[in-house]
Amino acid sequence: MKTNNNWHKETAMIHEGYDSEDHQGSLAVPLYQTSTYVFDSAEQGERRFVGEEAGNIYSRLGNPTVAVLEDRIAKMEEGAAGLAFASGMAAVSSVLVHLTKANDHIICSRGIYGCTFGFLKILEEKYNITHDLISMKTEQEIEKAVKPETTCIYVETPINPTMELADLEAVVNVAKRHNLKVVVDNTFCSPYIQTPLTFGVDYVLHSATKYINGHGDVIAGLLVGNDADEMAKIRGTVLKDFGGIISPFDAWLLLRGIKTLPIRMDRHSANAKIIFDYLQKHPKVEDVFYPFDDQHPQYEIAKKQMKMGGGLISFTIKGGKEDAQKLLNHLSLVKLAVSLGDAETLMQHPATMTHSAVPKEDREKMGVSDTLLRLSVGLEHMDDIMADLDQAFEAI
Ligand SMILES: *Cc1c(COP(=O)(O)O)cnc(C)c1O
Description:
Keywords: Lyase, Pyridoxal phosphate. This is L-methionine gamma-lyase. It comes from Sporosarcina ureae. Belongs to the trans-sulfuration enzymes family. L-methionine gamma-lyase subfamily. The protein is an alpha/beta fold. It is globular and about 75 Å long. The protein has a 7-stranded mixed sheet with strand order 1-7-6-5-4-2-3, with helices on both faces. A 5-stranded mixed sheet has the order 8-9-12-11-10, with helices on one face. The protein folds into 2 domains: 9-258, 3-Layer(aba) Sandwich (Aspartate Aminotransferase, domain 2); 262-393, Aspartate Aminotransferase, domain 1. The N and C termini lie far apart (57 Å). The relative contact order is 0.12. The model has no long low-confidence stretch (mean pLDDT 96). The protein has helices at residues 9-15, 42-50, 64-76, 88-99, 114-127, 139-145, 168-178, 228-242, 248-258, 261-281, 299-305, 321-329, 360-366, 382-394, and strands spanning 81-85, 105-109, 130-134, 150-156, 181-185, 203-207, 221-225, 285-289, 312-317, 335-336, 346-348, 372-376. Strand 4, helix 7 and strand 5 form a beta-alpha-beta unit. Helix 1 runs antiparallel to helix 3 (64-76), helix 3 packs parallel to helix 9 (248-258) and helix 4 (88-99) crosses helix 8 (228-242). It has 14 helices and 12 strands. It binds pyridoxal-5'-phosphate. Pyridoxal-5'-phosphate (PLP) is lined by residues 87-89, 113, 115, 156, 160, 185, 187-188, 207, 209-210, 219, 221. The site of pyridoxal-5'-phosphate has 15 residues, from helix 4.
């Protein structure tokens, strides 16, 4: 059985899209590490190329290992079809190219991922596709940003690294009124915590490099849409002709990672909640930002659209930039690295790392001060994480 609508998410993440009977009984999804496929006859090759017969042609157009991954992510996000890409950025750029043409306008979350911002700049410089960055907190604010040439709304929630939330229901209400497509970057939550398509969003994408893989050894992207025909169009145009496809081996590693996504997210979230409480009480910490904090101004939105808080926390420390850097330099178990969603706890300094390309003035408007640190809480024992934070705080 390749699918079963009664399966819970935890089950689908392990079984969706794969039947061992089709693969000599192999329990694990086999790795089809091949570039091309042999046709039985010239006629069969012709039929496959014109689309009269389903079947493999060439791995940029489709691969059996990748196909299982695409079915699985589609099921996890409750969408019609999924596509796998070489990186999160390949997914971001592909869906935006699909949804826009020259002179269009995009409404975007403020504080989006740095390279997504970089791609918006390319669209603007080359094709005059403009954008406005807004908070996405209220329907009125989103409504005000709509222009006659607006074609899509691009959302990140929670926003990196300030952990502010976009209200998905408000975004979708505005989009429906103006016939706009909505794309959500769901990297921070993973489909275990948040499923934007169930709120009426059209596309959801991931840097699968992060929680979905979860083991810090793959760069990959995933896209899921609620319309199978549109997804087939993206596969047949942008994915095929830009060629930002995932390698079969990376797809195989993702399939392995996804199996444990639910238990990892449960542990990331449980650890993060404890670290959050610890940071809130710490005398050297000024502010802590975590969506499942009952004091978070958007806690009601968090509860509406997220199952739990996830593993990311941001906090500001008392003092200046030097103190933030000193804290980082004294970490030992906690690793000083960008990226997130790995088994290892990681910490970084957005002002000088992930958001260093944003001018200081804009950075401060976004809430990215020089004393802000972002923590991706890992799967280690929380006492060990806290002991390492303790000794690093002690040094400043
Ligand atoms: C990392 C990241 C990306 C980019 O993904 P890559 O896999 O590095 O290309 C996009 N969005 C968010 C929120 C990310 O954290």
